[in-house]
Automatic annotation (TrEMBL):
<feature type="transmembrane region" description="Helical">
    <location>
        <begin position="269"/>
        <end position="295"/>
    </location>
</feature>
<dbReference type="InterPro" id="IPR003838">
    <property type="entry name" value="ABC3_permease_C"/>
</dbReference>
<dbReference type="GO" id="GO:0005886">
    <property type="term" value="C:plasma membrane"/>
</dbReference>
<dbReference type="InterPro" id="IPR025857">
    <property type="entry name" value="MacB_PCD"/>
</dbReference>
<feature type="domain" description="ABC3 transporter permease C-terminal">
    <location>
        <begin position="736"/>
        <end position="851"/>
    </location>
</feature>
<feature type="transmembrane region" description="Helical">
    <location>
        <begin position="784"/>
        <end position="804"/>
    </location>
</feature>
<feature type="transmembrane region" description="Helical">
    <location>
        <begin position="732"/>
        <end position="757"/>
    </location>
</feature>
<feature type="transmembrane region" description="Helical">
    <location>
        <begin position="443"/>
        <end position="475"/>
    </location>
</feature>
<feature type="domain" description="ABC3 transporter permease C-terminal">
    <location>
        <begin position="274"/>
        <end position="394"/>
    </location>
</feature>
<protein>
    <recommendedName>
        <fullName>ABC transporter permease</fullName>
    </recommendedName>
</protein>
<feature type="domain" description="MacB-like periplasmic core">
    <location>
        <begin position="499"/>
        <end position="699"/>
    </location>
</feature>
<dbReference type="InterPro" id="IPR050250">
    <property type="entry name" value="Macrolide_Exporter_MacB"/>
</dbReference>
<feature type="transmembrane region" description="Helical">
    <location>
        <begin position="412"/>
        <end position="431"/>
    </location>
</feature>
<feature type="transmembrane region" description="Helical">
    <location>
        <begin position="496"/>
        <end position="516"/>
    </location>
</feature>
<feature type="domain" description="MacB-like periplasmic core">
    <location>
        <begin position="19"/>
        <end position="236"/>
    </location>
</feature>
<comment type="similarity">
    <text>Belongs to the ABC-4 integral membrane protein family.</text>
</comment>
<keyword id="KW-0812">Transmembrane</keyword>
Length: 859
């Protein structure tokens, strides 16, 4: 009880200092809890949606997707004959059965030819209005479609694009473009997480989406009273045989959930990873806070020991303070996490994914995990200061002397740090010199961990030298005030090292990712210049295949010399070594592709691979299966026949553009795959007539005005798009790393604040002999800047080392250019100085307001 009272008194005596540490715990716990609440809410939203929209049993084509995704290589959804509906109606236990048509291989545009597809990445769905949709949709305006000139739209899409009944809409499919007017607007009775949904009447849907009548993509089956979904499925399978895919509502919902589960898990664990980095940074803040509080209570601890307190009691007293800090910070963090989740939901809403707070899901495990992590991290971080407090001898404490083991401990620490850093450097060297990327990645991971720990441990040793250099460069110009700021930073190298290490971690990751991202862009740009011999590349950024109508529009553009079509499909390969490789990718292109993309070959000529009955393979594939030029591979094409193709070329596996592709000609593909099942083009490569590049560029854009799903890019555009994609990814990662940097800034603030308290008497004496308030504040600000720049130098240097090593591994995959983004590195370094200035604002202000006499009288 005495220990608890002492801990409580000390905790509230330093509540301001504890508050900053509690904020670090709060932010980290909030990020963990917010991530869990957000992902659980998304799962709940999708679960409710899939459960509500699934019929009791669904019948579809054998080769259709389990998730209901209808995009296929030929742009049409797999279909079943209308007669199946009557067969299903005759099955036992069936109350009703209705045929429907639905496709996601569509683009919908408004009257100005602007796309109505979601910007959040959600699907665009066009289907026939049916009884199952009527269960989950409520018509709020107008009426359901009843003829070929009518279409109904969901309310979310209508709101986003200002659509009203009577507005004209175009539906673009492989069949052609169908125009209709909005007949009504329907709202979801459950949350729509971001899809754009349009409804036609059944006959129009068949004609527009499939191009033929008398077929459906699905049959929605409703069970009679007392019949379970499982029994109904058995009855339907008995009636139909095994020629169709039959799923219960639970199976359909589960398949749909698995489809989004991969994306959800990537997002969840990525965000939790960044929360872990914030926790790691927070550890340094907590260690520094308790170390300085223990140092400031040295005399008090000595008195406690002198009157009979044991080491364990002193140790326990500090740990109880940490426990209180962890509990308060974690409880507040769990609450803040729910608020963060709601904020993320609103942010996703702005991006086009609507998530309702009605579905907010807070499992009991979420606050439990947050509380456990927050308390555990705080207590573990406080253990070393607590142990150090317990080792202080009464007489040494009463004399205000340091512990005799401090110098020896510092030497041991420095030695361990140097060993770990050297081991990390050796691992990074082995990673950079690896022959295979898979082997090197393991060494890279080990090197990152060891070098990071080594820099953290050796930080106090490095602080002495680095701070002196920074002082000589930056602080000496400020005269005595600058020299005092330097000495303050050097006064306790362990404290400076720990404070700088907190900032170092975040900036090391920023530097590493900047180097990797910049090197990827530079390598890809160089490879494009070297390999791509065409003027323009046409593709859909959303993954839509290119319709025949769009291909004809491209061919008809003025100034165009040639158009190369590029298709992709799957096939089963039977190689000369007798192995059968299922669902292997094969690329079919026009012979001019050998000119449009200059792929290096190690045997044969790529142009020969486009001869009838010929193909190419890449080098690694050839080595694995004993293939040489002249070998034959039996190819069983998806949706087509089987034939033996002769290998005419072996391409280098070091290619970056179209890496690992195996080529054949479109004519060869057409020999084995029927015309109605031929895959659509993924890309078009267009070359302009000599001297007409600008005219052709404009003509292509004009020709594809009615097809907004496709983008025309010249090589400059393509490079910019690549740079933007990587830049957006990096910006998102930097945003997540900002949490760790914010926690590091709190650490600098706390260190300076406690340092000011620790030097109260000294500050009073300096003020008494003539140091002005302005000079005092400047001294504290410069001390903060030096600490921040120290952490930045370590972090940026370490991060560039990691990034350069990672680039060496990427070079094994063909990305051979190392590019250091000096503007970014310089900007981060300069920004660190401003971080230091910002962190010093409050401590410098409080120091300047000290009463001189009271400060001198402080014991």
């Amino acid at each position: 009880m005495t220990v608890l009272k002492t801990s409580m008194r000390n905790f509230f005596a330093h509540k301001g200092r504890m508050a900053l540490s509690a904020v670090a715990v709060l932010l980290s716990v909030a990020f963990v809890c917010g991530t869990l609440v957000f992902t659980d809410t998304m799962n709940t939203t999708f679960d409710k949606l899939f459960a509500a929209t699934s019929s009791d049993v669904t019948v579809s084509a054998k080769d259709s997707s389990d998730t209901g995704e209808t995009t296929s290589d030929n742009g049409k959804p797999p279909v079943i004959p209308a007669a199946v509906v009557d067969e299903v109606r005759g099955a036992a236990g069936v109350k009703s059965a209705e045929g429907t048509v639905v496709s996601t291989s569509v683009t919908v545009v408004d009257g100005d030819k602007d796309s109505l597809s979601p910007t959040s990445g959600g699907p665009t769905i066009v289907g026939s209005w049916n009884a199952n949709d009527a269960r989950t949709m409520k018509i709020t305006s107008g009426a359901a479609p009843e003829g070929p000139d009518q279409i109904m739209v969901d309310a979310d899409t209508a709101d986003k694009h200002g659509l009203e009944p009577g507005d004209e809409i175009g539906v673009i499919t492989v069949v052609g473009t169908h125009t209709a007017k909005v007949s009504g607007i329907a709202d979801f009775t459950v949350t729509n997480p971001g899809a754009a949904i349009f409804y036609l009447d059944t006959k129009t849907a068949q004609r527009v989406l499939v191009g033929e009548s008398g077929v459906y993509t699905n049959v929605n089956v409703t069970a009679a009273g007392g019949v379970s979904d499982a029994q109904l499925k058995k009855n339907v399978v008995t009636a139909l045989g095994g020629d169709y895919k039959v799923q219960t509502a639970e199976e359909t919902a589960e398949a749909n959930q698995k489809d989004v589960e991969g994306f959800m898990n990537v997002m969840k664990y990525a965000m939790l990873g960044f929360a872990g980095i914030a926790f790691l940074v927070g550890i340094f803040l907590i260690i520094n806070t308790f170390s300085m509080l223990v140092a400031q209570r040295t005399r008090e601890i000595g008195l406690m020991r002198a009157i009979g307190s044991s080491r364990k009691q002193v140790n326990r007293s500090v740990l109880v303070e940490a426990l209180l800090l962890g509990i308060i910070g974690s409880v507040l963090g769990a609450g803040a996490g729910v608020g963060l989740a709601v904020g993320l939901m609103k942010l996703m809403g702005l991006a086009g994914m609507d998530l309702s707070t009605d579905d907010l899901t807070v499992a009991w495990t979420t606050p439990a995990i947050g509380l456990f992590l927050g308390v555990a991290v705080t207590v573990l971080a406080a253990y070393l200061p607590a142990r150090r407090a317990g080792r202080i001898s009464p007489m040494a404490a009463l004399r205000d002397a340091g512990t005799p083991a401090d110098a020896r401990a510092g030497r041991i620490r420095g030695g361990i740090g140097l060993v770990l850093t050297a081991a990390g450097g050796a691992a990074l060297y082995l990673a950079g010199s690896a022959d295979k990327a898979t082997d090197g990645s393991m060494w890279l991971g080990l090197g990152v961990v060891l070098s990071l720990i080594g820099f953290v441990v050796v930080g106090p040793v490095l602080a002495s030298g680095v701070v002196r250099v920074l002082g000589a460069v930056l602080l000496r110009a400020f005269g005595p005030v600058g020299r005092m700021a330097e000495r303050n930073a050097l006064r306790n190298p362990r404290r400076t090292g720990a404070t700088g290490a907190a900032l170092m971690i975040g900036l090391a990751l920023v530097a590493c990712l900047s180097v990797v991202g910049s090197s990827m862009v530079a390598s890809a740009t160089e490879e494009l210049d070297k390999s791509v011999g065409t003027d323009f590349i046409i593709q859909s950024d959303s993954g839509q295949l290119i319709t025949p109508q769009a291909v004809e529009a491209v061919r008809g553009a003025s100034g165009v010399d040639r158009v190369t079509e590029y298709k992709w499909t799957e096939a089963d390969f039977t190689t000369p070594d007798g192995k059968t490789l299922k669902d292997t990718a094969i690329t079919a292109a026009d012979p001019t592709y050998a000119t449009d993309l200059r792929v290096e070959t190690v045997a044969g000529k790529l142009a020969d691979a486009y001869r009838p009955g010929s193909m190419s393979v890449h080098e690694d594939f050839a080595k694995d299966h004993g293939i040489s030029v002249g070998s034959k591979i039996e190819i069983a094409f998806k949706d087509g026949g089987t034939g033996a193709l002769t290998v005419r070329a072996i391409t280098s596996s070091e290619a970056v553009v179209d890496a690992g592709a195996m080529y054949t000609s479109i004519d060869t593909l057409a020999k084995y795959v029927p015309a109605d099942r031929m895959p659509l083009d993924m890309l078009l490569f267009v070359s302009a007539k000599d001297g007409q590049q600008e005219a052709a560029y404009k003509a292509l854009k004009d020709g594809l005005h009615d097809y907004p799903q496709y983008t025309v890019r010249d090589q400059t555009d393509y490079k910019e798009a690549l740079k933007d994609q990587i830049g957006q990814l990096l910006n998102m990662i930097y945003g997540l790393l900002a949490l760790a940097i914010v926690v590091a800034v709190l650490g600098v603030v706390n260190t300076l604040a406690l340092s000011v308290v620790e030097r109260t008497r000294e500050i009073g004496l300096m003020r008494a002999i003539g140091l002005s308030r302005r000079q005092l504040r400047r001294m504290i600000r410069m001390e903060s800047v030096v600490i921040a720049l120290f952490g930045a130098l370590l972090g940026l240097g370490l991060g560039m080392g990691w990034g350069a090593t990672a680039q060496q591994l990427l070079a094994l995959e063909g990305l051979k250019v190392l590019d250091i983004p000096w503007p970014t590195i310089t900007g981060v370094f300069i920004g660190s100085a401003f971080v230091g200035l910002f962190a010093a604002l409050v401590p410098a202000f409080r120091a300047g307001r000290m009463n001189v006499l009271n400060a001198i009288a402080t014991d």
